Amino acid sequence: MSGPARTVSDPWNRVTLRTFYRYRMTPPRLIATDLDGTLIRDDHSLSARTADALEVVRAAGIGIVAVTARPPRVFEELSALPHLLDAAICVNGAMVVATGTGGVLRASAIPVPSARKTAAELRAAIPDITFGVETGREVVAEAVYRRVDRVADRRVILPTLDEVFARADPILKLLAHCPGRHADTLLTVARGIDAPGVEFSHSGGRGLLEISAAGVTKAEALAWYCRSIGVSAADVVAFGDMPNDVPMLVWAGTSYAMGGAHPEAVAAATGRTTGNEDHGVARVLERLLAP
User: Fold this and answer.
1) Which of 4, 189, 223, 257 has a 20 to 30 A CA-CA distance from 68?
2) 3-state DSSP: the chain helix, strand, coil percent, rounded to 5?
3) pTM
C-alpha cells in the first residue's frame, strides 16, 4: 500500500489502515493491558465478552500480560483473571509476577533516602499531603493517611511517617494522598520539586499521586519482560487510559487509549477504542484476530 496512511472509518479506531492490515496478516505476539478503566469494568469484574476474547487470544498462542498500578494481591479478588494471564506487571512496574505461581520475577524499590527526601519536598509544597508505602504485601501508612482502596485494601497504620519508613520494606511505591486536590494538580506540583531518584505519575485515583523509583515505569518493566521472552516492541499491542500508562502506550508497536481516557494517554496512543464498560479491549482483539 502506498501513499499517506488513512484511518479506518470506525471513529473509535484511529490506527492506520496500514497497521490494521499488517496485524490482520501477522497477529501480535503479546497483549499488554492495564486493568482499572481498561480491561475490567468499574465494578472490578471481567465481562463475559472480554473473557471470551482473551481466551481466543490465548488459543492463538499470543501472550497476555496485565500491566497495573495495583499490587499482586489484587488477583486474590479478581479471581477470573489470573488463568488468562502469562504474567502481571504490578505497582506501576515495580514488580513483575508469574501469575500461575505467584512468584516474583523482579522487584524495584525506592531507596529509603530518596523516599524520605521526596516526602519532605512534597510536604513542604503541599502541607496537608499524607503518605503511605506499598510494599507489595500491604500498605504501611502514617496515621493521618485516610485513603482506602476499593480492591485488595490491606494496611498497617503507624503513628508517624518516620516509623513508616523504618518498617516498610521494600518501598515499591510511595503513595501521596491529598483528597482536596485533583491528581493532575498533584502531578504538576510534583514535577516541579527537587526529587531525584523517583518517578511521579497517577492512575486516576482522586487526590492520589504515585511515586516509583527512578526509571521504573510500566514501559520499562514491560520491555524487561519482553526481552526475557524474545518479543520486540513492534509485536506488542497495549491498552491503557491514564498518565501512568503513557510510557507503555508510547513503547508498544501499537497501542490503544480507552474511551474516556486521560488526554495524555490519548496523545500517546496510536489508536482509540471504546471504554471499559463497552468492551473496548475485546472489540480490538476481536478485530485483530478476525478470520
Assistant:
1) 189
2) 35, 20, 45
3) 0.89
Q: Give the distance, in angstroms, between the CA of residue 258 and the centroid of all CA atoms in the same chain.
A: 13
Q: How far is CA 279 from the centre of its chain?
A: 18
Say if residue 146 is exposed, middle or buried (CB neighbours under 10 Å; 0-12, 13-18, 19+): exposed
CATH code matching the domain that covers 17-108+217-288, chosen among 3.90.110.10, 3.40.50.720, 3.40.50.150, 3.40.50.1000? 3.40.50.1000
The per-residue pLDDT for range 238-269, each reduced to its tens digit, is 999 999 999 999 999 999 999 999 999 999 99
Give me the amino acid identity at 279: H
Contact 201, 183 (CB under 8 A): no
- Cβ-count burial 4-32 (b if 16+ within 10 Å, e if not): eeeebeeebbbbbeebbebbeeebbbbbb
Looking at every residue in the chain, the average pLDDT score rounds to 90
Neighbours of 192 (CB within 10 A): 10
